[in-house]
Amino acid sequence: NAGVTQTPKFRILKIGQSMTLQCTQDMNHNYMYWYRQDPGMGLKLIYYSVGAGITDKGEVPNGYNVSRSTTEDFPLRLELAAPSQTSVYFCASSPTGNTIYFGEGSWLTVV
Amino acid sequence: QQQVKQSPQSLIVQKGGISIINCAYENTAFDYFPWYQQFPGKGPALLIAIRPDVSEKKEGRFTISFNKSAKQFSLHIMDSQPGDSATYFCAASNNDMRFGAGTRLTVKP
Predict the structure, then answer these.
(1) DSSP labels for A52-90?
(2) Which of A6, A99, B51, B83 could form an SS bridge with A103, CB 3.0 to 4.6 Å?
């Protein structure tokens, strides 16, 4: 029972580099989300998707891009990494937009 | 602008005591109000949730109280245990889920 799987778990990036955080879910959920978590700031929504081919911006989309070509996958792309993008990133999915199931998180450091 | 405001930021309770965490929201379109529990190094997990058509929901030691007119809701943890020590997030949803800043709860033995 995999649920929501994120890779990599840990990554160190240099300023200006690009990378993709991978996310896949095996629960056939229509809704998928990317959040970032910073100390004392809770979880901020970066992007979300209500189904394959549909994506929408959340609260903090700048510096990120997403795509949703399949129901299972929702990768998050960081272009030109900046120190402000140092954070813990959580991918999540939901069948209805209510109960959300989170992945284990990806710790990203930009130096 | 924080759409869901949560307090306190941290809370210390003695074992057996009651833990109370409060949240307020602004958007009246929100129609689902969950609470999530997060342990260090893990993703948040759903604890309990409520819809605005009821004023209270209880599951074991956990109770949500909901005040629609005041746009406020709270989590009460009865008989708090050291194993309840975690970070708790309130949230509000209408398609996209918005979270409060979190409360770090410590239950002392």
Answers:
(1) TTEEEE-S--TTEEE--SSSSB--EEE-S--GGG-EEEE
(2) A6
> B34-92 pLDDT, tens per residue?
999 999 989 999 999 999 999 999 999 999 999 999 999 999 999 999 999 999 999 99
Cα–Cα dist A36/A44, whole Å: 5
Mutate to test the interface with B, among A9, A43, A50, A54 (most CBs of B within 10 A): A43
Are B98 and A59 an interchain contact pair (Cβ–Cβ within 8 Å)? yes
CB contact under 8 A, A104 and B43: yes
* Residue B14 token pair: 């003695």
Strand pairing report for B10-14 and B4-7: unpaired
The 10s digit of each residue's pLDDT in A82-104 is: 999 999 999 999 998 788 999 99
CB < 8 Å to A45, chain B: 96-99
Q: Do A102 and B100 touch (CB under 8 A)?
A: no
